[in-house]
Each structure stands twice: as C-alpha cells, then as structure tokens.
Amino acid sequence: MLPSPDMSPIAAPTPVHKGKYVPYLDGLRGLAILGVLADHFHVPLPPIFHVGPVGVRFFFILSGYFITLSLWKVREANLVTPLQRLGLLLRFYMQRLMRVGPPFYLALIVGAAFGIREIYDHFLWLATFNTNHYIVYLGYWPGEISHYWSLAVQEQFYLVWPLFVLTLPRRGFMPCMLACAIFALVFRMACITTGTNEVIRWVTLMGCLDSFAVGAAIAYLKQAKLLEKIHLLSRTWMLALPLLAFSCYFVARWITTLQHDNAFLALAESFDAVFLAWLLVAALTGVTGRYGGILSWSPLVYLGRISYGIYVYHVFIIVLVSPWLIADGMDTISRTLVLLAVTLGFSALSWHWLELPIIAWKNRLGEGVRKTKPASAFADGASAAIAG
User: Fold this and answer.
1) Taking the alpha carbons of 36, 42, 43, 48 in that order, is the dihedral positive or negative?
2) Comparing C-alpha atoms, which of 91, 62, 99 is closest to residue 219?
3) d(CA 283, CA 277)
4) Which residue of 39, 210, 264, 265 is surrounded by the most CB atoms within 10 Å?
5) Spatial contact of 176 and 220, defined as CB atoms under 8 Å apart
6) Contact 10, 155 (CB under 8 A)
7) Tens place of pLDDT for every residue, the chain, 388 residues?
8) Is the distance from CB of 220 to CB of 67 less than 8 angstroms?
9) Are 219 and 68 contacting, i.e. CB atoms less than 8 angstroms apart?
C-alpha cells in the first residue's frame, strides 16, 4: 500500500508573486515530502519515523490555509452581482487547474509512454481527478497510481470550498470548521465500527475534511490578525504549546499500533492535525534558534518548492527505475540514493522549465487584470485568488 499529498497533492509550492514570502513553509514542505519519499522508497527507519501519511496530511492543511486565505481576500472585495461572482469562481478554478494540471498530466504522459499499464486502463479516472473514487470502487490500493488519491481529494476540495467560504457568515466560520473536524472524526470511526473497507476512510474527502478545516481555521485567525498576538501569551503557555503538540504526535504514533477494528484508530489523524497546526502556526508567527535554522536551510527550502513535482513523479520513477537497480544487485542504501537523485533531478527540471513559466504567466495575467480595471472590485478579488 502506498500510504499517501496534497502532496499534493499535496499542496502546490508557495506561489511566486510579489508579497511576503515565508521560507519556513517551504522548509516544512521539504520535511513533509522527505517523509513521503522515505515511506515509498522503503527506507529502513524506526516505526516512529514512518511519517508519509503525516506529510500528506500537512499538505492538506496547507491547502486549507492558502485557499481559505485567498478566498477571504476575495470576500473582502465585496463583489455583489451574480456575474461578478460567477466570473471570479471560474477564474479561481482555472488558476487552480493551471497550477496543478501541467505536472500531473506530464506525469501521465511520461508514465504511459514508458508502458505503465494502469495509466492506460484507468486514464479517465486519473485525468478527471477521481483516483480516490476509483480506489473506493476497487477496494484496494492499485499499485502505481494509488498515490494520486490525494491529488483527487485536493481537487475535490478546491471544487467545493469557494462556495463554502464565500457564502458562510463570518461569525459562523470557526464553529463550522469545528463541525467539519468532528464530522471527519465521526466518519472515520463509523467506517471502522461498521467494518467498512479501510480505504474509504483514507481516500475520501469526508475522511480528510478535518485537515482542510484546520488549515482554514488558521487562515481565519491569520486574516483576523489574531496569530500576531500569540507572542502576548505567557511564558508558561509558550513552553506548553510545543510540548502539547509533540505529545499529540507521539500519541498518534501509538494509536496507529492499535488493532484494525479499534474505533480509536480514527483519532490518529485528529492528534496529527493538532501537531501539524502547531508547526504551521509556529512557522507563520516566526521561529528562531535551531528550529528556524533547519526550516530556513536553503536545500530544504528548495526541496519544498519542488515538492509538488516530487510527489507527482516519484512513484513512476520507482516503477520504471527500480527493476534496473534490482537487476544490478544494488543494496538498499544505494538504490534509495539513485531513486532520490533521479526524482529530484526530474522534479527540478519540471519546476524550472514547466511550473515556473506557467506561474509567471499566471501572475502576469493577474497584473493585466488589475491594470485594465483599476477601479474594479472584481479585478482585486480575481488577483487575490490568483495570488493564492
């Protein structure tokens, strides 16, 4: 089983545009994608460091954060006419597809060209971002394409979330995020207690909704300028919060050792969400010392910037390259290093020659909208969506 992002799908790297850039977020992305690679490359690590699923959950939290923050900016533009709102939503969906689609479809083309049969057999499911629904239909993980479940979940989240954020009353936003988190937990528990196939609680949007809701809640706090007040907490709280967060991480690792029919298994993602929320808040409010030095380390930051491509391509690289390495009798460490080098090289090429040019063109399009309609609230809202 490939326990996936979103990565992706993983969240896409921080958009390249004018504005405040937070390198710590890309540092966290780098750590998250390393966790995914370690699991999928079968690196022999102690169980407590098998954090591929945690990395994917972090990408979901980042997606909830960035998309909600952009939509709050759109909401503040006070678009009033139905035509303006429809135009904004269409632009939003197009921008998301432009960011996520090119590397994804390139991966499908390359995989098909090199004879990965599951792409031919299930192309329509993959191309329409329905891999997670296909996995539910099968009831098992379909090998070479199973990691695309998180991309499908993320795109389905992008489809429904704008309608949710743009219509929800401000005072009801945080209670609704809490309701989403509780709903996801109850859904996972119900799947376990009723003996439902475990892939359903893994790969459906309903089972992942709490991760997106946590990111959205942090975006709300950011937009309301409440995160900036964290430094006003007492020294006791400043020490207690990271201890609580890491305690949640270790509790979640223990929960994953329970029997497969134990309903408390559903709490693992909830405890992970608390831990990951603290990581995100700490990065957004500024970190110092050794932790800040690690997250701002340039190789790790760069790894985070190309993390979407890494996630999209790495399983196909495993499938295509591993047989050659096994035939040569290569040991585990050498095999892992070769796979890592090929994955990073291909992803870097994709970032510089495919993704960055498209991002730059997308940002120029946003600038053009602002120049042609300087007094338009719709233009401001559209550019905010593009920036997100």
Assistant:
1) positive
2) 62
3) 10
4) 210
5) no
6) no
7) 343 333 333 444 444 334 477 889 999 999 999 999 999 998 888 888 889 999 999 999 999 999 999 888 777 766 556 677 677 778 888 888 888 999 999 999 988 888 888 898 889 999 999 999 999 999 989 888 999 999 999 999 999 998 888 888 888 999 999 999 999 999 999 999 999 999 999 999 999 999 999 999 999 999 888 888 887 777 787 788 889 999 999 999 999 999 989 999 999 999 999 999 999 999 998 777 777 888 889 999 999 999 999 999 999 999 999 888 876 778 888 999 999 999 999 999 999 999 999 988 877 766 554 444 433 333 333 333 323 3
8) no
9) yes
Domain extents in the chain: 23-387
8 Å CB contact between 40 and 335: no
Residue 330 main-chain phi, psi, to 5 deg: -75, 140
State the DSSP string of 38-59. Answer: HHHTT----GGG--HHHHHHHH
CA distance linking residue 47 with residue 53, whole number of Å: 13
Q: Specify whether the CB–CB gap between 283 and 25 falls below 8 A.
A: yes
Query: Sign of the C-alpha dihedral, residues 167, 171, 174, 176?
Result: negative
Q: Which helix (H) or strand (E) holds 102?
A: helix 82-113
Type of residue numbered 187:
F
Torsion of CA 38, 42, 45, 49, to 10 degrees: 40
Integer Cα distance of 106 and 31 in angstroms: 25
pTM: 0.87
Token pair, residue 168, equals 């929800």
CA nearest to 77, candidates 375, 388, 364 = 375
What the block records as the tokens of 144 is 């070479």
